[in-house]
Every structure is written in C-alpha cells, then in structure tokens.
Design goal:
273 residues; mainly beta; eleven-stranded antiparallel sheet; three-stranded antiparallel sheet; 16 strands; 64% strand; elongated
Amino acid sequence: MRCNNFWSLNTYSQHSFSSYDDQLTRGGPLVRLPARNNLNATLTSDGRGLLAVQVNGSLNWNPAGGWSRDVGVTATIHPGPNFQLQVGPSYSRARNVSQFIRSVGDPTATTTYGMRSVFATIDETDLALDTRLNWTFSPKASLQLYVQPLIVAGAYSDYKQLRTPGTFNFDVYGRDAGSISHGSDGFTVDPDGAGPAPVFTIGDQDFNFRSLRANLIFRWEYRPGSTLFVVWQQQRAGSAPYGDFAFRRDFGALFDNAATNVLAVKATYWLGL
C-alpha cells in the first residue's frame, strides 16, 4: 500500500502445512514437522528527503511451541548525491524446540532403528548493527565503509530424544524418559533409567558469540582506465559459555578479542595499445 505522502506499507502472511523432513535427524528417522505460520510487515518513509526510514518486523510460530520475533530499523541519511550513510540496528528472539544435538547408537532403541536422535530446545537472542557509508569525493575517487557488531546468545534446555519416527513427538530426559544430570564436563544421560540402555554424555551447549567486522575500500582512478584499490579489513570474534543475553557485558567484550587486520592494495594500468 502506497500513500499520497510517498510512505508505503507492505505486509504478507504465510502458512506452511505439516511436512516430512529427512534431514532434521542428520541421517536418522523421518520427522513430521508441524505446520508453521509467518507474518511480515515493512513500513517505508518518503525516500526523497534528507532522512529515510524503513521499519520491518516478522513473527513466526508453530503449534509445537517454536517461535521467532524479529524487528529491524534502517535509517538512511542522504544529504547529497555524493554521500550516503545507512545505520540499521536489528534485534531478534527465537525458540526452536527441535535443535539437533547428536545421534547416539543404541541397540536397545528398536523403535528408532538402533539410534537415538537427541534434540534440545534453544532460546536465542541476536542483536546487530549494520552501518554502511558511501562517499564519492569526485568521479574518480570514492570511499566505502561497512561495520557490523554482532552479539548472539543461546541457552539450551529440555534435552530429549525423538520418540517415534514420522512424528514430532519427543521424550524429555528426566521427565518423560530416563534421567539427566549436570557435571563439570556437561550432561550425563541415562535414557531408560534402570533399563539396559547405555549411558552417554552431552557437552554444555550454551554460548555467547560476539563479533565485529569492518571493511573499508578506497577507489581512485588515477588516470583513464587505470584504478587503484586500497582495502582494509578487520575481524574480531570470540565466544563464552554463558547462554544469557547481557548487552553491557557482551558489547564490552567485543574489543576483548584480538583483531585480525588485512590490508590489500590492487592497481590496474590501462596500456591503451
């Protein structure tokens, strides 16, 4: 929908019916995924002025308890034909009730063909800030910059196993089947309690990932057909096993990781033969 003031609103919804998936168990039994629903909306302001804004959001959910919510804002400052600055923060939260962990061979698991497909529920939070700068000094010289700080936190819970092939039914360890205990090396799972099934272990899955990427490109056409490119890249990345999202702690930790810097220079020369 486009308004007379040049603002626009676009929305759509989607429904995906239940379907079989032969990849969720990584080579194990088929799984019947639940139906999924999706709503999206994008609001865009008049792009002819100094400042243009776009807001977008989406909502996804399924009847099994999985969901995701995303929102992003992109602000573009365009004071002239030779300069553009774009800043785009985005935030998302999601819950996936069928995050695959590992397969465990077990001859007593006859229902699932001698293999236990282990899953968990993961609650994930993502925060990013994409910044882009395009600056043309002259028809022969320009500068481009891209910077993205990214913070991701993931917390795992409800470790479980697929109950029956061709379904989306699970047995949660310690509640529906067997027992699970946490130790210094992760989790110890006894899938059937006092039964004959062997015990196995699962490492701690909780994580916090932080990264900072920056790219700077300078282009100069120093003579017709001959161009010099100077490219600088920096990458910082690291992780921690917290699992919870804490902005001040995680943002501050972006600069605790050592930086990898790359400088590249490329020149072309037009001979004109």
